[in-house]
């Protein structure tokens, strides 16, 4: 008996068998208004913000209606003025043409469509639309009445520019599409809608220029999106892990941006943009490795300065990976590389430090990353003070206490600053930095060079939706390298890159 009691206490109860929301064969709208109302009341049980209203035509009380809409996401004024009032005051006859009378003569709403399945009606009503059921009709009208509280269009915090447009995407899918449509005024701009997420039914839009995009690339993007199997899609980054190629060093093969001008420029290059409702982040594919060193501002400044800026970003990426490794390799293995005065100065600073140089470097890099993450997560005014004061105070105290050497503080500071120059490669920089540092700690400069070679070979063999991420370099075409690590003047950039563009002529628009 005691054994049975203990087993019962520590055995998890079995999950109850849940009845389906809609009975098999009962998904269709019926002619009976009361039965439709009963079915919807059961489906929206305990959903207190789901509102319903019964009313009849003023001149013919046999024409009855019932409305369903969600409070907070529906426009109440629009429902009253463009749905309820016209239906109550119209001259309607209860015959087979009642639905057509309502559509053509009564409703003053602009956007509506017929629906005969409860599953489709539920999705639309939860998104802010209004469902109108008519007694005697086995179809409902789903009328657009969305009214969301949305953030205003503003410049994205992570992609600010000194010169150029200040607009950024918001959490509204339609607003984001309109920002791009305003910039590309052609019927060739296609926008195909999908719903992803078994529970959220999130709207996802695939946008492309039909006369420029490579159709094989478009088919591959659609194929990968169709294979997305998840219950919720709350942000565009949810899709990245489903559709992107895997990289051991975290090299992204899907671009992200919050700027409409960036999306428009990529569409004009033959790329494909993926918008997600509820997210200001737009995905662009394919992504070339050199795009990580490019900025929107490069196209709004003189080409010489833009090329110089890209060179600085490339140099910063190399430095954030190699500077710690080079320092540890020189200090631990290759003393004769440095001039004697410099080597003696480093040796004196490390004389009383208790930790080996490699361990010291790992600890300081981890501490710097902790400070940086803490500064990002905290409120802006507190985070900035924490990052600056924390780094200064801790660094100075550690040197004075002889826990770390002064040259190590300089190395870590350079490493931490340079990683901020290429935010799109922050994951790759972190993984590659620790990988090369581990090899340099064990084998010196030889180990570091092996690590850099492995990273370079990995990037060379990586593809983004079938396009090599280093494509412009291996093709060695003059036009393909004019917008990579340099930016040529606009009159010199005559062609788009071939693999993801059907129409490669940028100027003149002639197909090649």
Q: How many structural domains can be distinguished in the coordinates?
A: 3
The computed structural class is alpha+beta
The Rg value, from CA coordinates, equals 31 Å
Order of the strands making up the biggest sheet = 1-2-4-5-3
Describe how the helices and strands are arranged.
Blueprint: H1 2-10, H2 33-43, E1 50-56, E2 64-70, H3 76-89, H4 98-106, E3 112-115, H5 118-126, E4 130-134, E5 140-143, H6 173-181, E6 189-196, E7 202-209, H7 215-226, H8 236-243, E8 255-257, H9 260-268, E9 272-276, E10 282-285, H10 303-332, H11 340-350, H12 357-377, H13 380-400, H14 406-419, H15 426-443, H16 445-461, E11 463-464, E12 467-468, H17 471-475
Antiparallel strand pairs: 1-2, 2-4, 3-5, 4-5, 6-7, 7-9, 8-10, 9-10, 11-12
Helix pairs in contact: 10-14, 10-15, 12-13, 12-14, 15-16
In short:
It is built from 17 helices and twelve strands.
Description:
The protein is built from 17 helices and twelve strands. The chain has 512 residues and is α+β, with helices and mostly antiparallel strands. It has three domains: 111 residues, no CATH class; 131 residues, no CATH class; 161 residues, no CATH class. The strands form three sheets. It has a five-stranded antiparallel beta sheet with strand order 1-2-4-5-3, sandwiched between helices. Strands 6-7-9-10-8 form a five-stranded antiparallel beta sheet, with helices on both faces. Helix 12 runs antiparallel to helix 13.
